[in-house]
Design brief:
The chain is an all-beta fold. It is built from one helix and 29 strands. A four-stranded antiparallel sheet has the order 6-7-8-9.
């Protein structure tokens, strides 16, 4: 992402002893070997580095925030409520880019989501790497602990031009303070957009693991729709369940707004919680592929059109496969070519190549490229962490949507 507004992208990531940058310079001590007998790295320095996007040269390196210690201090109420000292809970990482000041993007590096949770915001400005803020729940008992997902979303939920971080069942404000927690705990899927255009603001469709009877968290919703600004739960279902999968998208043009479905939901539901149709055959991913405004199903290496409870195959990417096991997610899905429909990038089955597929179906609708919507563009940057989710814009895109669409980042004063 272009972090300093100079027109060229930087790359930022976690590094360690022996990392070699694009011009051959070693970061840290290349002679160190920190892996233990199990092949896990439980000791040694951890760094955060910003690289030049053109040359790969390391521009700045600093200590990673937070450190891993204590390695047994990262368990909590998330998931089954367990803890360990073998690298499971401590080495849970997420990252995103967010416009925390409303003008230039910051990098947010994250550690932990089953218990203790830390988000560290960094700025790259004028050739200097500085810490903007650190949000740290300190332990597993904080009400914001154990609320993180395998995914996250940066979105301006309160309309002030600055982004908040939707971290699963809780949110962090642009200034690094807790905004709210729903107490619905850790989950696997997350969708943030104007899912219900009949009500103001954005909504969050969260999929949660609530099967463990953790004291004080019994019978939480396994699937819930909540207000993205306040965290108020609008409706929920599957109490006390580990749902695992769930999608929010407008796939049925006969129902206003997005449709919601989840593992074993026995149908698709409106944003009001009413059953409005039969379940699609997949509950993993969606993509804008054909010429109408509704979204299509993306599962594994194929794209399907949902119509009245049945599906029609639109694409089979022969020789390609998906990621994340049964989650069946692509390497990337995004409006890369700029006509508002989305391209899909798959890896080949031999892991030797990446292939990009695009639609050949004409459309009568003219919309700005989705990359001009800040939330959508940031969702693309965050698609490389955890269980990647379909990117969503900050406005409702679907049958019955409002025209004209205004998506330019510059309209919010942001620098692109």
């Amino acid at each position: 992402y272009d972090l300093d507004g100079d027109g060229r992208a930087e790359l930022a990531c976690k590094t360690a002893d022996g990392t070699v940058d694009g011009v051959g310079k070693v970061i840290g001590d290349s002679t160190k070997r920190w892996a233990n007998a199990e092949g896990k790295i439980m000791d040694g320095p951890e760094f955060f580095t910003v690289f030049d996007g053109k040359t790969g040269a390391a521009l700045a390196t600093t200590d990673y925030i937070p450190s891993r210690y204590p390695t047994n201090g990262w368990g909590g109420v998330g998931g089954i409520g367990g803890n360990d000292d073998r690298g499971n809970r401590v080495d849970r990482f997420l990252a995103c880019v967010a416009y925390l000041d409303g003008r230039l993007p910051s990098v947010v590096m994250c550690r932990g989501y089953y218990g203790r949770t830390v988000l560290a915001a960094w700025d790259w400005r004028g050739g200097k790497l500085t810490s903007r803020w650190v949000f740290d729940t300190k332990d597993g008992q904080n009400p914001y602990s154990g609320m993180g997902n395998h995914n996250l979303t940066a979105a301006d939920v309160d309309g002030d031009g600055r982004d908040e971080i939707i971290y699963g069942a809780m949110a962090v404000d642009d200034n690094g303070t807790g905004l709210y927690t729903t107490r619905l705990r850790h989950g696997d899927a997350l969708h943030v957009s104007d899912l219900d255009p009949s009500r103001p603001g954005l909504e969050v469709w969260g999929i949660h693991e609530n099967e463990a009877p953790i004291p004080g968290y019994e019978n939480g919703y396994g699937a819930a729709l909540f207000d993205a600004r306040t965290g108020k739960i609008l409706w929920g279902t599957f109490e006390g369940k580990d749902v695992g999968r769930g999608v929010a998208a407008d796939i049925d043009p006969t129902n206003p707004g997005a449709e919601l479905w989840w593992s074993d939901s026995k149908g698709i539901f409106s944003t009001k919680g009413e059953r409005v149709g039969d379940s699609p055959p997949s509950t993993n991913f969606v993509v804008w592929w054909d010429g109408d405004l509704s979204r299509e199903l993306l599962d594994g290496n194929h794209v399907d059109k949902y119509q009245n409870g049945t599906t029609t195959r639109l694409l089979s990417a022969e020789g390609c496969t998906s990621n994340n096991g049964s989650k069946s997610t692509p390497a990337l899905s995004a409006d890369l070519l700029g006509d508002w429909r989305e391209e899909v990038v798959f890896r080949t089955t031999d892991n030797q190549s990446l292939r990009m597929y695009t639609t050949t179906i004409p459309t009568p609708y003219r919309l700005p490229t989705l990359m001009h919507d800040p939330q959508y563009r940031l969702s693309i940057a965050a698609q490389n962490v955890g269980y990647n989710q379909p990117p969503h814009p900050s406005f409702f895109l679907g049958t019955g949507m409002k025209f004209p669409v205004k998506t330019s980042a510059k309209e919010k004063g942001r620098k692109e």
